[in-house]
Amino acid sequence: MLPYNLKEVVSASLRVEAPASIANLGPCFDIASVAISSFKDEVEVKVEEGNGNVEVEVVNETLPEGNQNTAYGAAKSLIESYNIDNLDVLIKVKKGIPVAAGLGSSGATASAVTFGLSRLLNINLSDEEMVYHAGNGESVVSGAPHYDNVSASLFGGIVLVDPSTMKVIKLNAPNFYLALITPKIKLGNFKTKLARGLLPNTVDLRTHVVQSFQVARLIVGVLNNNLKLIGEAASSDFIVEKERSKLIPFYWEAKKLALSEGALGFNISGAGPTVFAVCSSESIANNVAKAVSEFFIDHGVAASRCVTTPSRFGAKIVGRR
Length: 321
Hints:
Alpha-Beta Plaits, seven-stranded mixed beta sheet, 24% strand, single chain
């Protein structure tokens, strides 16, 4: 028996938005992320009688559409898992998150589609199922599912996700500020796949031990509202940062500058090229963002900047008809 009443959903549509996110948070590769308040993607998801087709249109950016878009992957994953072949899904994507910047743009789109389509079809997905389908959408551009960005975009706050089971642990994000600086480096729409390809296949035992301590330190910092611990842990990655920093000119000089300007921590946001600084106040975050962006510009690398905070909200419905 199908989980929906066809008469109720024919020509129904929802508009859903989902926030940007910062993945990895330093040492927590593929297992942690934080939703941020400055940027959101919005999707309109519509269903009508049909044959199980999915159509995707991007209305305000020149981006791959159809089966090259994460919206398609998420929708297909959900309807195929429920053997829904008597409806078509029509999706319009309005990008509000910078594309290919390391801020979870593709994950936010996939999350918004998963959330909206499950609501339209009255399918009561568990958190794990929601993460699974959104992660399948993300794999369209990353080459394989990963679940940290989509978890933050779905649920908001700081999240931990088990990549084996998709089980999500939601944490209350402390009050802090994030300085975001995006050097203008062209890495392409499949930048995530490129950045993942730089990473080592094996890690020695000593590196595993020190990395594990930093992961623990970050979680303790979040649970105890200790920004100093959060910042120190976010700055301490011995596996991913040293490889992905090769894609960002003057990265280590920029990190040293941010810390000298009062940042508590500094690292690469997701696959980059955006970098983030953990800051205890808005004024410090503004100073760090200004100093680091001007540093990049002075060294011939165009850069944009903003200051933001963690978002307590994940995907949500913003309109229906």
